[in-house]
Amino acid sequence: MSDDSDKDSKTEEPTEKKLQDAAEKGNDPVSREVALFASLLALLVVLALLIKPAAARLLVLLQYMLDGAGQHRIGNGADVQALMTLSGTEVSLALLPIILVLTVFGLVSAFAQNMPRFVLSRIAPELSRINPLKGFGRVFGGKGLVTFLKAVLELTIVSVAVYMVLRSHEGLMVNLMFMRPTVMPEEILTMLLRVVAAVAAAMALIVAGDLVWTRITWRKDLRMTKQEIKDETKQAEGDPMVKARLRSIALDRARKRMMAQVPRATLVIANPTHYAIAIRYVREEGGAPIVVAKGQDLIALKIREIAAEAGIPVLEQKLLARSMYDLVEVDQAIPPEFYRAVAELIHFLSRKKTRASAI
Questions:
Q1: Phi-psi category of 332—alpha, beta or left, where left has phi over 0 and alpha has psi -120 to 50?
Q2: What residues contact residue 17 under an 8 Å CB cut-off, 6+ apart?
Q3: Which among 71, 157, 191, 334 is most buried, taking Cβ atoms within 10 Å?
Q4: Could you tell me the sign of the dihedral formed by the alpha carbons of 327, 328, 334, 338, in that order?
Q5: 278: exposed, middle or buried (C-beta count within 10 Å: 0-12, 13-18, 19+)?
Q6: Torsion angles phi and psi, residue 114, rounded to 5
Q7: What is the pTM of this model?
Q8: Which residues, 6+ apart, have CB-to-CB distance to 37 below 8 Å?
Q9: Lowest-confidence range among 17-26, 52-61, 328-337?
């Protein structure tokens, strides 16, 4: 009951991460009919191109063995080994192209669907795989029924294709009984080739449908609940609470570093309590004045407090402080539009300092 409700709640299409995780675990959409279709194509190639040369080579070997039956010396084990080596070599050379074609078509059928992966979890022993109840559910469940119906459909289509080919060669099958033995293999091969071609053509339709069905059911099995998508998004982007905490820590550290620079300032421009901008200008360092700190409300008051403790002059310029706060950045030079106003303040402080030293 819980499984049914869980499946009903999985209404969302799987995300790319879900599909990728499934593929990494070896859970790929695989159509078993593709391998069967590849085997039929390989058999078709063998019958059309390779079976005659292989049969001819084996026939030459058989003639050699029979015609020279009395001439082969078998006096000891070495003679037997030499004869077996000769026979084995000829048989291997005759069958090697056929084996290569079957192997290549099998590999292509596997690679064409999914790239192979070595996943240990797929071959690890699991007790659930030998559980009779789960096995019964797999056989008589929804997937088992679909597999059975698909097998019936395949058998029907293939049987119809074979019947139509054999029916069209009905006269030839009757005439085979009256043909010379040397002609019969060629005719039988031709008829067999047409039967395999018809079955392969019928299987092509089955494979196309099975590929689509396999992909659909695979994505359906990987569907997710809305909560799973939320959890995955949270995991990918990070917990908002954790991110907010990290951002708060980063801002706090940056604020502390900024406050540590206030004693290096030349002056602080303030808008009595709301804004404060600490500026450093030393003629020997060259360049335009640098903003070493800025703040609003409580931070502005803290900047003024640190400046007062360090003996940094605080000049109240309401409009200038408000205008600069939005346009200046910490650890950067002031914008050109504030050069004149800041220069006048620096000049004012310089004259004030000169008069104080003269007294």
A1: beta
A2: 232, 236
A3: 334
A4: positive
A5: buried
A6: -155, 150
A7: 0.51
A8: 109, 200, 203, 204, 206, 207
A9: 17-26
Strand pairing category for 314-316 and 267-271: parallel
221 exposure class (CB count in 10 Å sphere: 0-12, 13-18, 19+)? middle
Contacts 24+ apart (CB under 8 A), 209-213: 210/31, 210/32, 210/33, 210/34, 210/150, 211/31, 211/33, 211/34, 211/113
Residue 277 forms beta bridges with which residues?
Answer: 269, 294
Helix (H) or strand (E) holding 279: strand 275-280
* Amino acid sitting at position 22: A
Residue 23 C-beta-side C-alpha neighbours within 13 Å: 13
Q: Among 22-26, 211-215, 279-283, whose mean pLDDT is lowest?
A: 22-26
Q: Are 332 and 303 in contact (CB under 8 A)?
A: no
Q: Round to whole Å and give the CA distance between 338 and 209.
A: 73
Give the Cα separation of 334 and 238 in Å (integer). Answer: 37
Asked if 258 and 292 count as a contact pair (C-beta separation under 8 A), the reply is yes
DSSP class of residue 124 equals: S
Give residue limits of the domains in the chain.
2-234, 258-358
Contact criterion met (CB below 8 Å) for 60 and 93: no
**pLDDT > 90 in the chain, percent:** 1
The third-level CATH classification (topology) of the domain covering 258-358 is: name from scop (3.40.1690)
How far is CA 338 from each of CA 26, 40, 283, 313, 325, rounded to the nearest angstrom? Answer: 64, 83, 17, 19, 11
Q: Decide: helix, strand or coil at residue 277.
A: strand
CA 7 from chain centre, in angstroms, equals 25
Q: Which helix (H) or strand (E) holds 269?
A: strand 267-271
Choose among 250, 226, 247: nearest CA to 238. Answer: 247
* 278's tokens: 């600490």
Helix (H) or strand (E) holding 221: helix 184-221
pLDDT of residue 142: 61
For the residues of 281-317, what is the DSSP string, one character each? --GGG-SS-EEEEEEETHHHHHHHHHHHHHT--EEE-
